[in-house]
Amino acid sequence: MHHMQDKEFDQLFKDKFDDAQIEPSANLWANIEAELAPKRKRAFPVYWMAAAVVLITLTAALLVFNKEDKVQLQGRTADVVKPSAIADGKVGDTLVDQVKPIAQDNTPAEEGILVATSPAKSSLVAEDKKAVQTPDQNSVKNNLAVMQPNQVIAHLTTKEPIVRESAAELLKAKVDPAEVIVIASADVPVVTGDEVINENDMADKRGIRNMGDLINFVVDKVDKREDKLIRFDTDDDNSSLIGINIGMIRFSKKKHK
Amino acid sequence: MILTQSYTITDLMEGCKAGNRKMQELLYKQTASKMLAVCMRYARDRMEAEDVLQQGYIKVFQKIGTYQGDGSFEGWIRRIMVNSAIESYRKNLRTLNVVPIEDAYEQPSQGFDFSRLGMQDLLGLIQKLSDGYRMVFNMYIIEGYSHKEIADTLGISEGASKSQLSRARAILRDEIIKMEGINYASHAG
């Protein structure tokens, strides 16, 4: 043995191990698999993709279903804005149809003002419908008397989108004249055209600084309702969700004025 | 291991590169027993060897994208296993204690010729070498590293690598003679 050369000795070992095989324990693959598992994360988080799909779908749905209304309403808006038309009581064809029920209950003067004021706070149709169950005709008249039609009309012409938005609600309102009256009585004391315009001007001046602003901007373009599909508070450069309105599901942190 | 006929080694490689778990499992099943035999030579026992094997396969699946196709695929996996074993040795260097080789006497196998010694017999002898000797012996004799490479990898001098190899050979010879006893000595002349 001792005369065996190192090379010879080494080769004998090498040969023995050349094709050596030893069966691993049965559970070893399971261990490897378990260790591999966390490394197979998806490139895109599933939840973000799901959220994006939902947002896109809803946006598309709103675009499709709101389109018809908007086209009609723009026509009406043009009519409403004309001071002369209101003064003469000769409003556009569509507007006449819409306002007729009101005219039966109210004076012509009220009719004109009503059209002008309701835009400012149209969303109250839904919220205040129940709260103010007995519309007070007298208070309506009194409040309306305080209002200055000229001023309001002026604001409306400068801020066309708001007019359109309000017109949308007017369309809904026409179903029930009493309901429209409620709008007027609820709105008049608090809401002035100035306030609404200021709010919107502020948003425009700030520009789009974060994701919340971007979403608000897009939703503004698409959803003309007062309670937007989704709304973020972006005042402090951090977006926080303050409002959701998907038909039956509605949530809002914003205080209604 | 018998590989399902419908998959070629290329299929397995591409599947593993894409992170396909089924293909990874097939590659493991086809190569694991050979690779465990490699890991066993570097480890003191089966448990340690399977730890090294597991870490080696994790690396195989992580690095498979870097395999360029030069040299055999099995050789590439084998090198990862050896590196995994060396890494494990270096990591545990300070915590390991030397097992005296003199205690490592076992019953001789039924054979009386060196050529009749089973792989398992020799493996048992290698595993009983102290860790440093075992590393040098495996790397030089089985894997074919040069003393320079061994010295660089293990952080020892070339002289130390050479002397450890000589010492390892001497110990193994003594052990084999113990196993073979008088039978082998007379047979070999």
Q: Would you write up a description of this structure?
A:
- The complex is a heterodimer of chains A (257) and B (189).
- About 42% of the residues of chain A have low confidence.
- In chain A, β2 and β3 form a beta hairpin.
- Chain A contains 13 helices and 3 strands.
- The radius of gyration of chain A is 34 Å and the shape is rod-shaped.
- Helices cover 65% and strands 6% of the residues of chain A.
- Among the domains of chain A are: 119 residues, no CATH class; 46 residues, no CATH class.
- In chain A, strands 1-2-3 form a 3-stranded antiparallel sheet.
- In chain A, α3 packs across α10, α6 runs parallel beside α9 and α8 crosses α11.
- Chain A starts with 5 loop residues before the first helix and ends in a 5-residue tail after the last strand.
- By secondary structure, chain A is mainly α.
- Chain B starts with 8 loop residues before the first helix and ends with a helix.
- The radius of gyration of chain B is 19 Å and the shape is globular.
- Chain B is an all-alpha fold and 189 residues long.
- Chain B is built from 8 helices and no strands.
- The longest helix of chain B is centred in the last third of the chain and has 31 residues.
- In chain B, α7 packs across α8.
- Chain B has 2 domains: 95 residues, Rna Polymerase Sigma Factor, Chain: A; 93 residues, Winged helix-like DNA-binding domain superfamily/Winged helix DNA-binding domain (Arc Repressor Mutant, subunit A).
- Classes of the chains: A mainly alpha (257), B mainly alpha (189).
- At the A-B interface, α1 and α2 of A face α2, α3, α5 and α8 of B.
